[in-house]
Specification:
Number of helices: 4
Largest sheet: 5 strands, antiparallel
Shape: globular
Radius of gyration: 20 Å
Number of domains: 2
Oligomer: single chain
Helix content: 10-25%
């Protein structure tokens, strides 16, 4: 398995340019692709499901159920849905064309390497062909606020061990913020009514293009206090995007360290809807970052790469 150091044309889309992996050696060990067929007649029967893959408790097995081509393309190119153009059926999350994928991922693969594997799978099984164009987008630039950054350097720099993602009871300090268990890297504290404690591993913050869900934000939970440990600015952006309407944030902070972060905001508050009052009990994520972390989101326009699908089959070739 190649490492990222030898992955010369890594897929990456945090900035304005997509570097597309053309290395055909990045492949799933075994992969099955088939149309999903009619949705089950249940309440959530048409919902897409993703189980496993790098960063999950089952990193060597990837399972998509009822995935749209839009989702698969966004995953393959590590970009947002609005950066994909092509046939109408490709540009929707809600169309009838869905696919089930079961794949074995080589041990130790990263999300970026898995994306390259998915791209090669789409090329092989759907005969995907594309070209890249530039388009101006509304974006946010994350900059250091006027009075300077309030971030604190991580007490334990370097990579911490991972715990399985999922609910975990965590204690809170006198300030209401989660006290993280040994080895954990992110804690989501209690909401204003005392509910909602859980734990998420650091991998939940990596590859921010996987969150938020296409065209939506994380569900609102009221005022929530978060503790994050040993995170980079890229990971902090990935965290913020879970609670923002925007899909595009450019890092303009110039900060390159790892940080321990505490931040509280109203996860049910629409970003931009709150006031600049520092005493506001439930600021949105934009105001919270500026007041509490010394980092400001400012609106801008920027040219981003768009993947234009020139050719893609609706039915994959046989397994």
């Amino acid at each position: 398995m190649k490492t990222l150091q030898t992955f010369a044309t890594l897929i990456f889309a945090l900035g304005s340019t997509i570097l597309i992996a053309q290395d055909s050696s990045f492949n799933f060990e075994v992969a099955s692709v088939k149309p999903s067929g009619p949705a089950p007649a249940t309440r959530n029967g048409d919902a897409m499901r993703l189980i496993g893959g790098p960063g999950s408790p089952d990193p060597e097995h990837l399972r998509y159920s009822r995935a749209s081509m839009l989702r698969l393309l966004a995953t393959s190119f590590l970009i947002q849905a609005d950066q994909i153009a092509g046939p109408d059926w490709v540009k929707t999350e809600d169309g009838p064309d869905r696919f089930d994928i079961a794949a074995n991922v080589p041990a130790g693969a990263t999300r970026e390497q898995m994306a390259a594997m998915m791209l090669n799978l789409l090329k092989e099984r759907f005969h995907l062909a594309w070209h890249v164009e530039k388009k101006d987008f509304d974006v946010f630039e994350l900059v250091v606020a006027r009075n300077g950054s309030k971030l604190k350097a991580a007490e334990i720099p370097g990579t911490l061990p991972e715990l399985p993602e999922g609910p975990l009871n965590i204690n809170r300090g006198s300030d209401g913020f989660p006290i993280l268990p040994a080895g954990s890297t992110m804690g989501e504290g209690a909401t204003a009514d005392g509910h909602g404690s859980m734990y998420l591993g650091l991998q939940a913050l990596n590859g921010f293009q996987f969150v938020p869900p296409l065209g939506s934000r994380m569900p609102g939970m009221g005022l929530t206090r978060f503790t994050l440990r040993n995170v980079t600015i890229k990971q902090l952006i990935g965290f913020a995007l879970r609670y923002m309407d925007s899909s595009h944030v450019m890092d303009r902070t110039g900060l390159t360290g790892n940080y321990d972060v505490k931040v509280a905001f109203g996860t049910g508050t629409r970003p931009g809807a709150s006031t600049d009052d520092a005493s506001e009990p439930s600021p949105d994520v934009l105001n919270a970052f500026e007041k509490q972390l010394g980092l400001k989101f400012q609106k801008a326009r920027a040219p981003l790469d768009v993947i234009v699908v020139d050719r893609i089959d609706k039915v994959p070739t046989d397994n």
